[in-house]
Amino acid sequence: MNISPSLTQTLHTAWQKKGLISTLLWPASWIARAFIARKRLRYQRDPGLAYHSRLPVIIVGNIYVGGTGKTPVVVALAQSLQARGWHPGVVSRGYGVQVGDKARTGQGQLDPALFGDEPALIAQATGCPVAVHPNRPLALKRLQRDYPQVDVVIADDGLQHLALGRDLEIVVQDGRGTGNGRVLPAGPLREPASRLEYVDVIITNTQPNEPAPKRLNTLARQLTMQLAPVSVTQLSTGTTLEWNAWRSAHGHRTVSAVAAIGQPERFFAMLAAAGLQLNQTVALPDHDRYDTSPFSALSDPNILITRKDAVKCLHFNDPRLWVVHAEPVFSDADWIDHIHEMLRVIAQQKSAMADKRPRH
Hints:
alpha/beta, Rossmann fold, 33% helix
């Protein structure tokens, strides 16, 4: 079910403080906390309940419900690992897609109707093989079978999917931090904020001039990132221009922007910070299917959209649509080198363990 951006914004605003609505819902949150704790204890007592791959597995997830910027981190991580000689594959739930009993795999240009918009974007941006299924272990097993060259797996989301064993956990949050600190429905958290004490890396996605949340008391490596536009592609022709060149050629004309992501206002703010004056902005529900064109009501000669939306808008064949390619700029440029070194150790350990297992 798609929730309107206005309702989503209202909920997130309410979840930033412990007001009357949050307090009334607090008993329900305690029930949710008890369920979460019971589930985690079950997996701790019986590690065999989780599927542990022979490959290193990295989770990129969040504890704050809704969009925090995981997908750009997955793309940047996959591309950086490729540059360091790894062959990553990606597993994802495939939000909004009816997959069936068997996981679905693919590489390159994928149909978002079959894989979901985010997996299709990740496959297109990285060239990595992708597997989708709500049951992440099924997706991972199919990925290993269909793409034996994969030597590290990145799970797009799935921090709370305990059936998938993991070796490293990366949490992506934004400037809202942990909100009012309460678990759903009294607050925005999928798990208690104490969960952040046990992850390996915490990345805070901030907007220009937005202060990062208070540094957490955890051993996790902590850094910030900001998304910045680097190029723009005309969707109907594939013509690509560097951002400054596009601004020089088209920025003087009226421009609108459309986004169907978790936090569309963040996309609009990024464009404004990059020097654009937007005539109109249209915020659609996250994962909107674009069954009908939202662009027909806009009269501007240029309309900017996200890469996540672009995989679903090609059929409109509208020359006014330009896809913004934004890349994260990290405050800690060495964090992926840190991940790379940890992966080398994990891969060696897993290989040694596999060699010790009896062969039948």
